[in-house]
Design goal:
Number of strands: 14
Shape: elongated
Helix content: 40-55%
Number of helices: 28
Strand content: 5-15%
Strand order of the largest sheet: 1-12-3-5-2-4
Length: 602
């Protein structure tokens, strides 16, 4: 790492020539008009601008590069430096002080505008405290108007008018010939302007032309992980960088791919195609209309690829561990990504089918998105072994232990990697291997009392298990709910006993009205008829269904509800009875006994 002190003029020249460009992972950014005026004032006062940071390329760049906004004419040149920190500052100064075109910016209301920047000479030679007021912007026409009648308040459309107003055009500040010509016009227009110009030159122009911008240059050998870390630490004013964007720029800069295929590799296009394929068939992966990272994200996909790659490397003796940490993603070669990405896409398609069998079909009903990453990697590793005798049962058990034991709720990198290796071994019946997600998962009996919202994976899990075990809707009673009906009939968890009704009771479970024990999956149409106590609305639903009362009671029982306890409502008895049945459901899914806090049970 080296510290340099180039003049601002030299930096802007490098921007114009393409010697200084942006890595493609840098987002485009547009400063507003007020911030541009403020940074111009800073330069004219020779106040510190802040350190600029760049990465040396060594004549070759690992990233696809692009010019700063306004310097597009230099495309195609290999840059000497890639700007990591300072994009907004240098872009604003380049457009305002160096380029002979209006600046693309936004006004105080966020509306796009194109502006020229001027400095009022009379104000600029006054107190430095008033310098901000000396910097003005005018529209592309160089004519300022006011009021609904569009009365002209300032016209700077010719050099003569600029001189008469004492407004120096800042876009020529680094062009000696044009500045000299403007000076001559200014002092010729009024001999009294000579002293003012001399003061302006000393207090403003000299500051700008000699302005120095401290610059840290990182060596070309800086690792990808370090580049990503440095960028995230210094780029505090922008949107955080993610690994996908860094890999996009890295893959696009792969010259071997360009030589072979005649174009750079477009990772976003590849990911969007994979996401479109998955989400079109399985809504649980998100909505394409909501963006490519709604639901299943690009990061999830890259992590699954990294798990598969590090698995292969470990089997070959070239890696110590299966892993999907950031460094594993950043070290992912393009050739390996191109080879493995189709397998991971196919694996996620199988995951979508698996979730459908669990009656989890909407993104909002998914307990843990992070648990899908190791599952996809395992499918890619073992292939159809997941569907063989015993394989599917073990995957089911692993999945529900992760959900109901709430094992994927916090930092998951270590668990993800461990689960891949252990689940593969378990499916292949290697001796003495059971995934720790299975052995460590615990469901406490009183957890049911606190499962009240979708914020909990276990809440979503019990909702799905109720559908999976055969719940029949209370309006559409033709048969058990199917995955295809969940979206079509707008199935959701709905209260069995109304919260207001429970609040009026004095029972032991008065505070548990919003627990999952008092909820069940039903269609929106059924929910419309559920007004008042169950003893009242169930008669309405039974008549709407056209079923005899005893047959409708059989429908209620598919929700693990004792019909007698809702027809003659006793919330405490209902709650105890249904909690026991739900605990049995959880126990079956997890393949282990529920843990009771109270040795006497309920």
């Amino acid at each position: 790492m080296s510290l340099d002190s180039p003049q601002l003029k030299k930096l802007l020249q490098d921007v114009a020539s393409g010697a200084l460009q942006l890595p493609d992972f840098q987002r485009k950014w547009k400063w507003d008009d007020e911030r541009i005026k403020a940074i111009i004032a800073t330069v004219t006062l020779d106040y510190p601008l802040g350190v600029v940071m760049a990465l040396q390329t060594g004549d070759t760049t690992r990233f696809r590069a692009r010019p700063l906004s306004g310097a597009e004419g230099c495309e195609g040149r290999t840059p000497d430096l890639l700007l990591l920190d300072g994009q907004q500052r240098l872009t604003s100064l380049f457009q305002a002080l160096y380029r002979d075109e209006p600046v693309d910016t936004v006004d105080g209301r966020g509306n796009d505008m194109r502006a020229w920047y001027y400095i009022d000479i009379a104000k600029a030679v006054g107190s430095p405290a008033d310098r901000d007021e000396a910097i003005i912007s005018v529209p592309e026409s160089r004519v300022l108007t006011t009021g609904s009648a569009q009365r002209i308040s300032l016209d700077l459309s010719t050099t003569e008018l600029e001189c008469n107003a004492g407004m120096f055009p800042l876009n020529i500040v680094f062009d000696t010939d044009r500045t000299t010509a403007w000076q001559q016009a200014y002092v010729t227009s009024d001999a009294a302007n000579w002293p003012r110009w001399s003061a302006f030159q000393g207090r403003v122009l000299n500051h700008v032309n000699s302005f120095v911008a401290p610059m840290i240059n990182l060596p070309a050998a800086t690792t990808m992980d370090a580049v990503c870390a440095v960028f995230e630490r210094v780029n505090t004013g922008g949107v955080p960088l993610n690994v996908f964007e860094l890999l996009t720029a890295t893959f696009a800069g792969n010259q071997e791919h360009v030589s072979e295929f005649g174009d750079y590799y477009q990772l976003p296009t590849v990911w969007e195609a994979a996401k479109q394929r998955l989400s079109n068939r399985f809504p649980v992966f998100g909505s394409p209309e909501a963006g490519s990272d709604d639901g299943l994200s690009s990061s999830d996909f890259l992590q699954a690829v990294a798990l598969l790659r590090t698995w292969e490397l470990k089997q070959a003796g070239d890696a110590a561990a299966v892993s999907c940490k950031r460094r594993d993603l950043l070290n992912l070669p393009l050739a390996d990504f191109r080879r493995l990405a189709p397998r991971i896409t196919d694996a996620f398609e199988w995951v979508g089918e698996f979730l459908e069998r669990q009656c989890i079909v909407r993104a909002g009903d998914l307990p843990y998105r992070s648990q899908l990453v190791p599952l996809a990697a395992v499918r890619a590793i073992v292939g159809e072994e997941t569907d063989a005798a015993g394989g599917e049962e073990r995957i089911d058990q692993w999945y529900w232990n992760g959900v109901l034991g709430e094992m994927y709720g916090q930092s998951t990198e270590t668990r993800v990697s461990r689960d891949v290796e252990q689940l593969v071994a378990w499916i292949r019946r290697e001796p003495s291997v059971v995934p720790e997600t299975v052995t460590e998962a615990v469901f406490l009996d009183d957890r049911l009392d606190t499962l009240t919202t979708r914020n909990s994976a276990a809440y979503k899990g019990i909702y799905a298990l109720l559908i999976k075990q055969g719940a029949v809707d209370w309006y559409f009673t033709e048969g058990p709910l199917k995955a295809s009906q969940i979206i079509a009939q707008n199935v959701d968890v709905r209260l069995i006993f109304p919260k207001n009704w429970v609040a009026k009771t004095s029972g032991r479970h008065k505070m548990h009205a919003t627990s999952i024990v008092n909820k069940t999956p039903l269609s929106l149409r059924a929910g419309r008829s559920m007004a008042g106590a169950p003893s009242s609305y169930l008669k309405t639903l039974q008549l709407e269904s056209g079923l005899r009362s005893e047959w409708f009671d059989d429908v209620l029982a598919t929700h693990l509800i004792d019909p007698a306890l809702v027809h003659e409502p006793d919330f405490d008895q209902f709650y105890d009875n249904r909690a026991k049945q739900l605990l049995d459901l959880v126990q079956t899914a997890m393949g282990k006994r529920t843990v009771y806090r109270d040795a006497q049970g309920r």
